[in-house]
Amino acid sequence: MSAQDSCLSLIKYLLFVFNLFFFVLGSLIFCFGIWILIDKSSFVSFVGLSFVPLQMWSKALAISGILTMGLALLGCVGALKELRCLLGLYFGILLLLFAMQITLGILISTQRTRLERRVKDIVMETIQNYHAHPEESAAEESWDYVQFQLRCCGWNSPQDWFRVPSFSSNESEVHRVPCSCYNSSATNDSAISEKLSFPHLSRLGPPARPGHNTDLCAVAANSDIYSEGCARSLQKWLHNNLISIVGICLGVGLLELSFMTLSIFLCRNLDQVYDRLARH
Question: What is the pLDDT of residue 199?
């Protein structure tokens, strides 16, 4: 076996092993997505969370898993069987994904102001329509999760919730806000804690995080709720995690470039291998 044949064989099996890993990873992502769709409560108990916007993200996980499995399967079969058509299709899909990521990055950089305005509009619409349609709570759960994780309330400030008609209160100093705005570390008032106990928490795990739900709770204005708006908190989070985000994006891009290089190199050199085999 010549050095070129050895090199091609090494590239083939490297491509196969890497894509096999991503096929298994895609299978796990798909299984988690299906698990959430079928039995959300057991998944929450397993991961130890009492509040996550599961219903919306479960479909995204399932679709991402299927796409990852399909792309990895193309790479595995194309590399192992040395099929130029599959390797070419694999390269084309990776190139398309890479181009889409570059385009998305450019759009985010150039249209940041418009994007921020659009995000604000979506959030404000979610706040204004909070609990208007209880059967469609995915966006509300997601925003509750953001508020709890970032320890913030509303988009600009908690005043965003005070202006919502359905949250109006007859008591002048008490405002109704989602429990995700409740600052549990600010008070040890047992009376308020009791207001935050809801029946459905028992099936979502231990009541360690009482505010993780879309039920409403009354808390005293400017005392027991987070005072900072989520727009500012999101900016802080992005600033603190900018290096990690850029690093992940660069890592994914380099991985795609590596796979594209291996697949196109193997594809272009298969003709030479076939010619030598034919002569022998």
Answer: 36
